[in-house]
Amino acid sequence: MNERSLQRRKPIPMEYFEDPICRDVPTFVSSFVDSFVDFSVSGGLFLPPASPPPASQNAPANPSSSQLHTWLSSPERLIAVGDLHGDLSKSKEALRLAGLIDGSGRWIGGSATVVQIGDVLDRGGDELKILYFLEKLKREAAKDGGMIITMNGNHEIMNVEGDFRYVTKEGLEEFRAWGDWFSVGNKMKALCVGLETPKDPFQGLPTAFRGVKEEFHPGFRARIAALHPNGPISSRFLSQNTTVLVVGESVFVHGGLLPGHVSYGLQRINEEVRDWIKGLSGKFAPDYCRRSNAVVWLRKFSDESATNCDCSLLKHVLDTIPGAKRMIMGHTIQMAGINGVCNNQAIRIDVGMSKGCADGFPEVLEFIGNSPPRILTSNPYMKQYTNSLNVDTKDGLGLLLHEHGQKQVEVKA
């Protein structure tokens, strides 16, 4: 239908809107278009209908938090997954290792609780596909009484702020394709009588960017449109993330916590970061998410040498959080594998599994009831399962399984 014919189109009679069947057509069209765009962008996924989590011990302590979890009681089975950085294949391998998905990528984890500690974005080309895949698993897990909680890492914060220093060529292309499909979907919705004109996330954005190669301008522009505060991708996926999480005796955070963070309020941090991502508080993240001592940037407890980790500070922080015995963090690659220092009060789970990082063997941390944590690893040179963490070895490293493996690689962002 061309523009002239649209101008000649007669007004829609009121009877159209009074007919229940016709009245529902715009909703059906909108839902179909959204599913079409999701399928095209996600690599062929149909997202199951969302359902509220079942009432259980995993219900949020504060019902008014809108499912933004800060405090959870200990589940029967808890799995912690480190940084994924745009590598869908390695992400699936880690989840299969934990018995959470089958070979087709369907949830088989039952009532398990999974915590992914952040840094899905950057360094790889499957960022959107991982976001969609995790969303699919969240919905599948909820039907079985399970739960997947995703967290903010420093790379989520950076991208919402428009800091794309660690984006790959493939990552820009994935977002360029998203932008094309999203725009097609909006145009389809605009043709449907009864639907509001969709908001254009590209409105007001430049088409060229100084210091960026011309071939990357479309992907750069699409990434800004998708991820800026209240963008279609940031508000849909990243605003669901927690920034600090306490599950039973374990405190999860991407970088680390300082006493000031705890006194400021863990629930308050989660809510303020969520509101910022939703576009309610300006362009830049709160101060506790920026610079080296931020909750998503801190490295005081993840140095490769156990002697350089500030164990007394860590103990002080944990003592201020009721019931907390350990802090579990990502952010700094542990080439020796998942490991613990400071008498296992600091457990580091970023093994650099993404091909964009260290291409490490996937590993996950598992808790069964009140038993000590163990590591599940895909490294063929190590045992498939280990029952405990070795602490503060003679080499000064907090290694899990072996003392003479490769050292960590500390990645600056």
UniProtKB/TrEMBL annotation:
InterPro entries, per the entry: Calcineurin-like_PHP (IPR004843), Metallo-depent_PP-like (IPR029052), MPP_Shelphs (IPR041787)
Superkingdom of origin: Eukaryota
Cited Gene3D superfamilies: 3.60.21.10
Annotated Calcineurin-like phosphoesterase domain residues: 77-186
Cellular component per GO, a single term: cytosol
Listed Pfam families: Metallophos (PF00149)
UniProt GO molecular function: manganese ion binding; phosphatase activity
Listed name of the protein: Shewanella-like protein phosphatase 2
Name of the gene encoding the protein in the UniProt record: LOC103488876
